């Protein structure tokens, strides 16, 4: 067999032989899944500018992944959430009247859950009412309230319960309270304070006020009404069948305090004109009025 000698190959053959040997080494290294670092790495597909690359052996642990599929296969998969084995039926407890606080009971859930709440008035969600309790307001009087709960727990599908059975809320009391000691009138509508302002009651005579005390009923509303002492009230609300009533008094320069002791009325309850107008517009004949010291 003839043997080629180096001097017979020439310089060109020596260079091509060196390249062939280098490429053979690269192929062996890549097949073994090793990291390579060659000065001509830019020319090899899959090798970055630094000359380093990683080729997975068989996707085993500790071997870097090169695509989304192999990465996903290496990550642990969380189990899908399962439904609650039991979803409770909520209910409402508490006094069903305006001004009272109602409490939502979520019912029995399995497993135990954390809850969020939604309150409804006549089937419409009440804004900002998202807690386990709800204090009823004047707008709830005569309406039906219901509640719904959302249960959540680790490993469970978050779910809304059915809507609770609706409860009817009774309107709160509506009345007028006149306190002669503080010279204040309070108008409570459906259990909620609607108005509060200073007044002037009757001028005391021999230590006794000319304004009677007790519980009365507004039996008449007139606008205007001429008073028996020749003054005209624009807003007149008669108490029972007497000459005593609630009315505006534009001739009074002050209301409240001790003004009544020197500038009290003939027995009526004098009201600031602006407040008298608002009160007259809201109260109805039949409204109860309590006057006390």
Question: For the report, how would you describe the main beta sheet?
Answer: 8 strands, mixed
Distance between the termini: 137 Å
Strand content: 25-35%
**Can you tell me the CATH class of the largest domain?**
Mainly Beta
Biggest sheet, spatial arrangement of strands: 11-10-9-18-12-15-16-17
Task: Output mean pLDDT.
Answer: 82
Task: Give a verbal description of the structure.
The N terminus is likely disordered. Strand 9 and strand 10 form a beta hairpin. The strands form 4 sheets. An 8-stranded mixed beta sheet has the order 11-10-9-18-12-15-16-17, covered by helices on one side. It is an alpha+beta fold and 293 residues long. It contains 4 helices and 18 strands.
